[in-house]
Automatic annotation (TrEMBL):
Organism of origin: Pigmentiphaga litoralis
BP-aspect Gene Ontology terms: L-amino acid transport
Listed name of the protein: Branched-chain amino acid transport system ATP-binding protein
TM ranges: none
Alphabetical UniProt keywords: Amino-acid transport, ATP-binding, Cell membrane, Membrane, Nucleotide-binding, Transport
Domain ABC transporter: 6-233
InterPro entries: AAA+_ATPase, ABC_transporter-like_ATP-bd, ABC_transporter-like_CS, BCAA_Transport_ATP-bd_LivF, P-loop_NTPase
Keyword Transit peptide set for record: no
Length: 234
């Protein structure tokens, strides 16, 4: 069994007025690729945000390599090696593509050259400003910027949402390559369940703040009945 990188231990968490996650436990191992699935509003983004300290914890613990994350201020969590690509993308509009990338560079395994191999469009747009990019290019830049942190864990929150099919294909190729490195753990939140299951080894399905399925992605992909029951997709 590989080492536990991240553990949710019976957590309850949410926002000021609402508790969304209820007594949820999940262990994520080093090098694992995990699809986090579920219908709209079941708490997927809330779970990801809880890793980064952006929710209110009401019980339980989140542990990073066995140590309680509550002891690490939210703004220091990226420094542990956690790359977060939120749905909002948070591109700096008045910085160039290259400058956006250099804001997070830590001199690790993900160099600009390696980023350019993964996303040739990023190289082509190197001198464009953040606000001169298409939605797909912004998404690539947001992922590339998280990689420049040299993360041990990469959190991708609906990276394919609203993008043209040609861009989706490019991102799927890039995510496949990222998952294949084996030294980075990837958690992929996705509405496109079939795509996410094809990209990952393990799948977790949530419903109303709880985990209702944990198993192999390939097995779930082949089981239309189970997919229909869990997510409404056969
Ligand atoms: N900042 C917030 N304050 C209060 N409630 C919130 C906040 N963000 C989300 N919620 C609520 O928490 C619940 C879970 O939302 P969340 O975004 O985690 O779901 P999700 O599974 O990621 O859904 P989606 O696929 O639509 O993004 C929803 O009922 C949502 O309305």
């Amino acid at each position: 069994m590989s080492t536990a990188l991240l553990e949710f231990d019976r957590i309850s968490a949410g926002y000021d007025r609402a508790t969304i996650l209820e007594n949820l436990s999940l262990t994520v191992h080093e090098g694992e690729s995990l699809a986090l699935l579920g219908r709209n509003g079941v708490g997927k983004t809330t779970l990801i945000s809880t890793i980064m300290g952006a929710t209110v914890m009401r019980g339980g613990a989140v542990r990073w390599r066995g140590a309680d994350l509550a002891r690490v201020a939210p703004h220091r969590r990226a420094g542990l090696g956690i790359g977060w690509v939120a749905q909002e993308r948070w591109i700096f509009p008045s910085l160039t593509v290259k400058e956006n990338l250099l804001t997070t560079a830590r001199g690790g395994a993900w160099t600009l050259d390696r980023i350019h191999q993964l996303f040739p469009r990023i190289k082509e747009r190197e001198h464009n400003l953040g606000n001169q990019l298409s939605g797909g290019e912004q998404q690539m830049l947001a992922i590339a910027r998280a990689l420049m942190l040299d993360p041990k864990l990469l959190l991708l929150d609906e990276p394919l949402e609203g993008l043209a099919p040609v861009i989706v294909d490019e991102l799927v190729s890039a995510i496949t390559a990222m998952c294949a490195t084996g030294d980075m753990t990837v958690i992929l939140v996705e509405q496109h369940a079939h795509v996410a299951l094809g990209l990952t080894k393990k799948a977790v399905v949530m419903d109303r703040g709880r985990i209702v399925f944990e198993g192999d992605s390939a097995g779930l992909l082949d089981d239309d009945g189970q997919l229909e029951r869990l997510i409404g997709l056969g």
